[in-house]
Amino acid sequence: MNSSADTTLWARYGPEVVRESFDVTEIIFDPSTGETHFLNELPSLLLSVVQPQPLSLNALIGRLAGDVEVSEQGREDILATLQFLAGAEIIETRGPF
Q: Span 4-91: which CATH code?
């Protein structure tokens, strides 16, 4: 994993999204963009732990996994999902610092 991933911060500054769950899909409406998104489990879970205060990848993984060790593949999946959420303008990034 590249070192900039460890220094990038992730946050959600806009108003809370409106959520509705159906089976394994969560539908969210983002009032700050007016867009509706269909998310599977990992993006939905990450969105629930991203806060207005910017957090690093390691801090977000800690919120998700607690004391459970996350594999390198798991870290890469989480990073890719954060990048997807940022690309969809659901969350924002700062850095790398």
A: 3.90.930
Residues forming a β-bridge with 9: 56, 94
Which residue in 86, 90, 94 sits closest to 26, CA to CA?
Answer: 90
Does the model's pTM come out above 0.85? Answer: yes
The amino acid at 72: E
Rounded to whole angstroms, the Cα distance separating 77 from 29 reads: 24
Tokens of 11: 């946050």
Residues 6+ apart with CB under 8 A from 67: none
Edge-first strand listing for the sheet containing 35-39: 18-22, 25-30, 35-39
What are the counts of helices (DSSP H) followed by strands (DSSP E) for the chain?
A: 4, 6
Q: pLDDT band at residue 4, thresholds of 50, 70 and 90?
A: low
Q: pLDDT, tens digit, for every residue of 29-84?
A: 999 999 999 999 999 999 999 988 999 999 999 998 988 999 999 999 999 999 99
